[in-house]
Amino acid sequence: MSARFLAALGAATLGAALAGASSAHESHDHGTMPNMGVPSAEACSGLHVQDAYARVSSPMAQSGAAFMILHNHGETADRLVAARSDVAARVELHTHVEEDGVMRMIEVVEGIPLPADGGHVMARGGDHVMFLGLARRLADGDSVSVTLVYESGCKVSVEIPVDLKRGAPGGHSHAHGHRH
Ligand SMILES: [Cu+2]
How far apart are alpha carbons 25 and 136 in whole angstroms? Predict the structure, then answer.
């Protein structure tokens, strides 16, 4: 058997394994949906949002971001898996990573875990809710309706005020070219 054939075989096996993994994942998702149901209001009552605000980097900005502190006062861990809003064409969960000394933002595909009786800070320079393709301009004093979707099936709606005056932590994070 040639080395080339072995390599091809290896790639084919890997491909098959990946295909298997992705279809297994899909069927898993579909399988859990029918019995997921909607959690009771009580079951979701421990999911709180504190100190939320949204901002844009300029009046003409096509995108914006929201920051907040997520609390999970419940006894089971949960995970923020999505955010929805009519204010933008797309709403994503983002974080910042440093690559070659440059801060970039990337989508947090796996969501943001919230331990039982724990929380998570979404703040400037870190995790945020990203609004891509704003449907309208955002100005100080406006508010944005956002629904936070949790892994448990809980949905928490929040009215987030637009606050353009709030300073960035550290005060200089806007000097690096990455703006919201
Ligand atoms: Cu972002």
Answer: 37
